[in-house]
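Regression test case RT-17, inverse folding.

Input:
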């Protein structure tokens, strides 16, 4: 069942906009953790410990992504991709809005950080369920020769959400500077989430279901979807889940220096730079990330996903090596250069991920495979990267350890990409499951 051009455009728009809104919610917390929550929610612990614990709550939510991925993957394979997208949108937006209403530690004591952690966990469950369904809806609607480009739509959602979150905080830092930002200004971007949820609902409500899922549900002569897709995934495809997760993690470790709020905290804390300009620099870097993400999706349709990853990890490695030498100058121009160069590498190792994941797994378990592999990769890569970076600097007094940490992760990603066989353009329909189930690795037959 082929999609029309107008349907495809509507799907790409809906998945891109909706995913950007969800990542806005998720990254807004990450950026605020090192700027606000370490003082208002965890302040009694002291500056160093409070910052580490604030970043720990950023990572804590990742531990619940597999739960969201398990639930979303199961229902995505059973009920369709579209249903899952609507549920996760409302769960994420509701949690973000409630964070904007939370009293501080001074007002209600220990219940403030406890409530904050509970809402962050709900964000983690929602994020774990959102990405896989959005990815499959976009890629399974795409023409075979444009999967990378179509799949870059929901991929753009992450840097777009980062741009929106830091842009909103920068705007509020200008509107409510100084103490006013800490008193009430930070809350406005969280409360604005309810407006974005309504927008997300309106753009997603009319989207057609994935043609691959529709064909599977209508073709009663085809092999039925397994009753427990997750069990089949772990029984037959566990090595593929691990390798795919490592590939994603290698991007996430470096990406969460910005997306996890570490750079924002480090530059405004240890380097004493002003909060507003740093937020604007991160916003500009996110714009670079958007452009290179779209480019990576497009070029991967021409040169293959594998080659795009290889090039991307080489560029990301160079970005990692130059990041802190430039940031440590405390010169805003060099900070922008360092983050911008890193963002080029991040985009080149991110834009093609949607199409790559969709081409890894057979149709009947694709929802579970994509969602769970992504969730595991997020834990390995982004969950505690900001906390680890903060702890390394706290212990050594230098950013050299952070650079080594990022470079090792990037190198592992490069070798993982080299180990995978390129599957660009493989048929995604349920009638091709036998072909989809074989030939994933270079050394395999």
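Golden output:
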């Amino acid at each position: 069942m082929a999609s029309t051009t107008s349907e495809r455009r509507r799907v790409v728009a809906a998945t891109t906009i909706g995913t950007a809104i969800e990542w806005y919610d998720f990254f807004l917390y990450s950026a605020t953790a090192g700027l606000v929550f370490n003082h208002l929610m965890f302040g009694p612990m002291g500056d160093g410990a409070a910052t580490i614990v604030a970043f720990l709550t950023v990572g804590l939510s990742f531990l619940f992504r597999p739960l969201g991925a398990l639930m979303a993957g199961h229902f995505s394979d059973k009920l369709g991709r579209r249903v899952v997208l609507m549920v996760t949108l409302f769960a994420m937006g509701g949690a973000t809005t409630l964070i904007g209403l939370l009293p501080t530690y001074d007002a209600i004591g220990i219940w403030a950080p406890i409530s904050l952690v509970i809402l962050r966990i709900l964000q983690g469950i929602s994020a774990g369920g959102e990405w896989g369904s959005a990815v499959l809806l976009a890629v399974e609607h795409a023409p075979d020769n444009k999967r990378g480009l179509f799949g870059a739509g929901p991929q753009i959602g992450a840097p777009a959400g980062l741009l929106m979150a830091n842009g909103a905080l920068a705007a509020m830092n200008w509107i409510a500077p100084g103490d006013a930002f800490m008193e009430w200004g930070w809350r406005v971007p969280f409360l604005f989430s309810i407006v974005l949820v309504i927008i997300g609902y309106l753009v997603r409500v009319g989207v057609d279901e994935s043609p691959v899922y529709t064909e599977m549900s209508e073709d009663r002569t085809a092999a039925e979807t397994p009753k427990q897709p997750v069990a089949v995934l772990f029984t037959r495809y566990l090595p593929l889940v691990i390798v795919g997760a490592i590939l994603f993690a290698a991007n996430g470790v470096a990406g969460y220096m910005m997306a996890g709020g570490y750079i924002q905290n480090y530059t405004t804390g240890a380097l004493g730079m002003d909060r507003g300009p740093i937020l604007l620099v991160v916003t500009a870097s996110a714009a670079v990330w958007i452009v290179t993400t779209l480019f990576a999706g497009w070029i991967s349709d021409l040169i293959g996903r594998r080659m795009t990853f290889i090039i991307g990890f080489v560029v990301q490695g160079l970005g990692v090596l130059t990041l802190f030498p430039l940031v440590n100058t405390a010169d805003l121009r060099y900070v922008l250069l360092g983050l911008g160069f890193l963002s080029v590498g991040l985009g080149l190792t991110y834009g093609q991920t949607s199409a790559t994941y969709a081409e890894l797994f057979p149709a009947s378990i694709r929802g579970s495979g994509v969602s769970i592999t992504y969730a595991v990769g997020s834990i390995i890569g982004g969950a505690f990267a900001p906390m680890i970076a903060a702890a390394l600097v706290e212990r050594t007094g230098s950013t050299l350890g952070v650079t080594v940490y990022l470079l090792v992760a990037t190198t592992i990603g490069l070798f993982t990409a080299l180990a995978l066989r390129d599957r660009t353009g493989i048929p995604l329909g349920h009638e091709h499951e036998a072909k989809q189930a074989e030939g994933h690795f270079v050394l395999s037959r």
